[in-house]
C-alpha cells in the first residue's frame, strides 16, 4: 500500500517536472546558443536525478517496410484484459466470427498495472503526420505507440521478467481470440477464408486407442518447443495419412487443426510453378499451422521419380521430350516442382522458419510414393485410415443417431468383419432421412447395404480364386510344353 502511494507521489513530481520541461522547450530559443546548450545538459541531468522514472516506448510500426510490431500487438492484447477494467475510453474489436468482443484502451489513455507488488503505468498515444497534399485533401498518417513508465529501482524486474510476461500473455490471448484461417495457394500467393470445419476427434470414427495415441502425439508436439530446441531440431512434425477414399483423412486434418487451434494451409502443389515458388510459399506460412498436401500421389509426378530416372539413365533414353497434352497441363504436369524441391520444403533449411508446424500428406496409394518422401524424420507418423470397424461404427451411431446400444448392433458388428465399407458410406446410411429421424430404419438400411457388400466381396473372392486356378493351370501346361523331349524319353 505504502509502495503504491509513493509511486503516485513520484508520478505527481514527474508531471510537474514534465511541465517545466515543456515551458523550457518554449522559451529556450530566447537564450544564447552556448548558454542554452549548457543549461540543457544540466537540466537533463537534474531531470534524471529528480525524476526517478524510466520510460520505454513501443511503436506500432518497425523497420523499413513498416511492419506492424509484434511486441506492440502483444502489448495491445495484454492491455485489453486489464485496460477494459480501468480505462474510461475503450476501442472495441469483434473477433471469432463475430462472436466475441475484445476491448482495448483508446488513444491517450493511461492504465496502471502491478507485477510482483510493483506498480507501473501504460499510456497509449499517437503521432499524426501530414504526409501529402492531394488536390484539396490533406493525407494524414497516424502512428500509435504505448509508453511504459516505472521506477528506476525496478529496472531489472520490469525489463526482464515483467516484459516477458506481458509478451507471453499477450501472444497467448491473441491465439485464443484469433479467428483461424484456411489458406490455399493461387500460384505463389496464399489467400484465405475463415476456417470453420466442425470436425473434432470426438466426432471422428476411429478405434479409441488409435485416437488416443494420435491426440497424445499432437499435444506432446505442441508443448515441445523446448525439447525441439534442446535436441537441435526444427519444431515441426510430419504426418502421413493413408487409406482408401472416404476413410476420414481430410476430416482428421480438420480435427487436428481444431484440437491444436492451428491454421490450415492447403497447398495445391500442381499450381506451384517451381521449387523457388514452393519455398516462397513455405516462408509465408505462419507458425501454429498445418501445411497439408492432399492426394500427394496425384499432385505431381513425384512417385518413384528417382527409380524412373535411374531406369531412363540405364536405357540411355535420349528421346526428345514429347509436348504435353492438355490433360497433362491441366493435371499440373507443367509444374517444375521436383522431388528434391519437395524434400527441401519438408526438412531443408527453410523449413525451420516459423516453427510449430505440422506437415501432412494424404494419399490413397501409399505404395506409389517415393520412400525418400515418407521416411521417418520427414513423415514421422504414418497413420492408416481404413474401412469402418465396429468401434468406429459406434462413434458414428452415437454422433448421427444418439445411440449407444441397439439390438441390431450385434448383427452390424458381425457384418462389418466380413464386408468392407468406408466410414463415409456407413455415415451416409446413418443420416436421418425423415423428420424426426428413425434410428431403426437407418440401421436396417445399413444392414442391407452391408449384406450386399458382403455378397459382392464373396463373389469377387470366388472370381479371384477361379482366375488364380486357371492361370496356374495355364502355367503348368506351359511348363509341360517346354519340357525337354529327350530327357523325357530317357525317363
Ligand atoms: N473416420 C471418419 N469419421 C467421421 N466421419 C467420416 C470418417 N471418414 C469419413 N467420414 C465422413 O465422410 C466424408 C468424407 O470423408 P473425408 O473427405 O475425410 O475422406 P478422405 O479419406 O479424405 O477421402 P479422399 O481420399 O477421397 O479425400 C466426410 O464428410 C465425413 O463426414
TrEMBL record:
CDD domains in the cross-refs: RecA-like_BCS1 (cd19510)
Native organism: Manihot esculenta
The superkingdom of the source organism is: Eukaryota
The record's Pfam families line, in alphabetical order, gives: AAA, AAA_assoc, AAA_lid_At3g28540
Task: Indicate whether Transmembrane appears among the record's keywords.
Answer: no
Q: Would I find Iron among this entry's keywords?
A: no
Q: From start to end residue, where is composition biased (Basic and acidic residues)?
A: 309-333
The family database entries (InterPro entries) matched by this protein are listed as: AAA+_ATPase, AAA_N_dom, At3g28540-like_C, ATPase_AAA_core, ATPase_AAA_CS, Mitochondrial_chaperone_BCS1, P-loop_NTPase
Q: Which cofactor does it need?
A: Mg(2+)
Q: Which SUPFAM superfamilies match?
A: P-loop containing nucleoside triphosphate hydrolases
Q: Which reaction does it catalyse?
A: ATP + H2O = ADP + phosphate + H(+)
Q: Name one GO biological process term.
A: response to stress
**Family named by the database record:** Belongs to the AAA ATPase family. BCS1 subfamily.
- Record-level Gene Ontology MF annotations: ATP binding; ATP hydrolysis activity
List the residue ranges of the region (Disordered). 305-335, 458-491
Q: What is the lineage of its organism?
A: Eukaryota, Viridiplantae, Streptophyta, Embryophyta, Tracheophyta
Its name, as the record gives it, is AAA+ ATPase domain-containing protein
Show where the AAA+ ATPase domain sits.
235-389
Tell me the keywords, alphabetical order: ATP-binding, Hydrolase, Magnesium, Nucleotide-binding
Amino acid at each position: 500500500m505504502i509502495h503504491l502511494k509513493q509511486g503516485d507521489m513520484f508520478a505527481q513530481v514527474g508531471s510537474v517536472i514534465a511541465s517545466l520541461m515543456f515551458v523550457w522547450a518554449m522559451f529556450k530559443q530566447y537564450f544564447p546558443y552556448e548558454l542554452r546548450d549548457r543549461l540543457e545538459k544540466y537540466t537533463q541531468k537534474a531531470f534524471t536525478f529528480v525524476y526517478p522514472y524510466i520510460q520505454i516506448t513501443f511503436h506500432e510500426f518497425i523497420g523499413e517496410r513498416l511492419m506492424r510490431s509484434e511486441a506492440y500487438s502483444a502489448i495491445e492484447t495484454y492491455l485489453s484484459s486489464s485496460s477494459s477494467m480501468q480505462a474510461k475510453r475503450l476501442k472495441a474489436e469483434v473477433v471469432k466470427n463475430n462472436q466475441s468482443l475484445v476491448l482495448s484502451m483508446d488513444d491517450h489513455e493511461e492504465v496502471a498495472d502491478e507485477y510482483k507488488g510493483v506498480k507501473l503505468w501504460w499510456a497509449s498515444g499517437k503521432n499524426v503526420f501530414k504526409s501529402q497534399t492531394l488536390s484539396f485533401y490533406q493525407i494524414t498518417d497516424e502512428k500509435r505507440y504505448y509508453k511504459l513508465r516505472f521506477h528506476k529501482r525496478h529496472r531489472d524486474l520490469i525489463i526482464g521478467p515483467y516484459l516477458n510476461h506481458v509478451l507471453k500473455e499477450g501472444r497467448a490471448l491473441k491465439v485464443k481470440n484469433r479467428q483461424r484461417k484456411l489458406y490455399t495457394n493461387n500460384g505463389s500467393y496464399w489467400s484465405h477464408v475463415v476456417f470453420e470445419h466442425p470436425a473434432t476427434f470426438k466426432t471422428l470414427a476411429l478405434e479409441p486407442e488409435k485416437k488416443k495415441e494420435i491426440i497424445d502425439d499432437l499435444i506432446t508436439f505442441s508443448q515441445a518447443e523446448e525439447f525441439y530446441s534442446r535436441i537441435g531440431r526444427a519444431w515441426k512434425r510430419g504426418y502421413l495419412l493413408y487409406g482408401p477414399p472416404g476413410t476420414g483423412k481430410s476430416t482428421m486434418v480438420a480435427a487436428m487443426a481444431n484440437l491444436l487451434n492451428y491454421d490450415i494451409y492447403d497447398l495445391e502443389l500442381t499450381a506451384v510453378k517451381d521449387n523457388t515458388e514452393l519455398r516462397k510459399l513455405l516462408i509465408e506460412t505462419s507458425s501454429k499451422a498445418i501445411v497439408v498436401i492432399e492426394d500427394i500421389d496425384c499432385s505431381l509426378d513425384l512417385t518413384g521419380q528417382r527409380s524412373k530416372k535411374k531406369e531412363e539413365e540405364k536405357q540411355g533414353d535420349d528421346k526428345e521430350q514429347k509436348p504435353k497434352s492438355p490433360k497433362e497441363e491441366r493435371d499440373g504436369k507443367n509444374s517444375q516442382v521436383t522431388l528434391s524441391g519437395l524434400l527441401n520444403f519438408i526438412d531443408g533449411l527453410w523449413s525451420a522458419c516459423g516453427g510449430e508446424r505440422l506437415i501432412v500428406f494424404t494419399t490413397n496409394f501409399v505404395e506409389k510414393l517415393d520412400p525418400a518422401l515418407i521416411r521417418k524424420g520427414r513423415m514421422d507418423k504414418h497413420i492408416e485410415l481404413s474401412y469402418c470397424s465396429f468401434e468406429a461404427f459406434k462413434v458414428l451411431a452415437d454422433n448421427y443417431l444418439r445411440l449407444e446400444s441397439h439390438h441390431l448392433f450385434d448383427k452390424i458388428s458381425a457384418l462389418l468383419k466380413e464386408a468392407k465399407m468406408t466410414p463415409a458410406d456407413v455415415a451416409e446410411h446413418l443420416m436421418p432421412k425423415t423428420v424426426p429421424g428413425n434410428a431403426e430404419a437407418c440401421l436396417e438400411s445399413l444392414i442391407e447395404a452391408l449384406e450386399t457388400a458382403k455378397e459382392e466381396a464373396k463373389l469377387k473372392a470366388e472370381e479371384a480364386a477361379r482366375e488364380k486356378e486357371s492361370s496356374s493351370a495355364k502355367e503348368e501346361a506351359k511348363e509341360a510344353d517346354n519340357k525337354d523331349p529327350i530327357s523325357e524319353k530317357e525317363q
